[in-house]
């Protein structure tokens, strides 16, 4: 498959991995327990924005991609978005630490792991073993926005670009 496009159904077998945020594991040195996150099931009746990036703690991802979503979270919620999620190939422990390092609490943004880059590879939006940089907006199981970055910049997958399409 070569990506997803508006009008496509979100696949019905997508499972990511994550560590839910809890007050008990809020400290960056605390470890939670990884759990499966059945995205297809959880997102079936919701409006979701998923943005993917090559890796947690990397320069572009940390300085230019994630911050826009943190800053604009209220604007996404005002447009009816139920869930904002970030996806990378990193394991759930790294994604959880990245969430804590960015002071994102209460799963305001889900930090999801794409084990073995399975999902990203299934849609052809990977860079070797890493996720490519892309964004999807899904409304009740239907893709309403899908864009993969043509280069290294954060443009079509950034918070501003996705907000403009909702």
From TrEMBL:
Active site location: 61
Keyword Oxidoreductase belongs to the record: yes
UniProt-listed CDD domains: PRX5_like
Domain named Thioredoxin: residues: 4-166
Biological processes per GO annotation: cell redox homeostasis; cellular response to oxidative stress; hydrogen peroxide catabolic process
Example GO molecular function: thioredoxin peroxidase activity
GO cellular component annotations of the record: mitochondrion; peroxisome
Keywords assigned: Antioxidant, Oxidoreductase, Peroxidase, Redox-active center
Cross-referenced Gene3D superfamilies: Glutaredoxin (3.40.30.10)
Classification via InterPro entries: PRX5-like, Redoxin, Thioredoxin-like_sf, Thioredoxin_domain
Keyword Transcription among record annotations: no
Signal sequence bounds: none
Function: Thiol-specific peroxidase that catalyzes the reduction of hydrogen peroxide and organic hydroperoxides to water and alcohols, respectively. Plays a role in cell protection against oxidative stress by detoxifying peroxides.
Protein family per UniProt: Belongs to the peroxiredoxin family. Prx5 subfamily.
Name of the protein described by the UniProt record: Thioredoxin peroxidase
Species the sequence originates in: Capronia coronata CBS 617.96
Lineage: Eukaryota, Fungi, Dikarya, Ascomycota, Pezizomycotina
């Amino acid at each position: 498959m070569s990506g997803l496009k508006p009008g496509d159904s979100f696949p019905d077998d997508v499972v990511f991995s994550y560590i839910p945020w809890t007050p008990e594991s809020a400290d960056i040195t605390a470890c939670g327990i990884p759990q499966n996150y059945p995205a297809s099931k959880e997102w079936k009746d919701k409006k979701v924005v998923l943005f993917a990036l090559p890796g947690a703690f990397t320069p572009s991802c940390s300085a230019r991609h994630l911050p826009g979503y943190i800053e604009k979270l209220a604007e996404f919620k005002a447009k009816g978005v139920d869930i904002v999620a970030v996806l990378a190939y990193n394991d759930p422990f790294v994604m959880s630490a990245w969430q804590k390092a960015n002071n994102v609490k209460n799963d305001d943004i889900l930090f999801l792991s794409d084990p073995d880059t399975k999902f990203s590879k299934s849609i052809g939006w990977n860079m070797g073993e890493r996720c490519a940089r892309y964004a999807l907006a899904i409304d009740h199981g239907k893709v309403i926005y899908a864009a993969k970055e043509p280069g290294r910049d954060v443009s079509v997958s950034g918070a501003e670009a996705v907000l403009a399409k909702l």
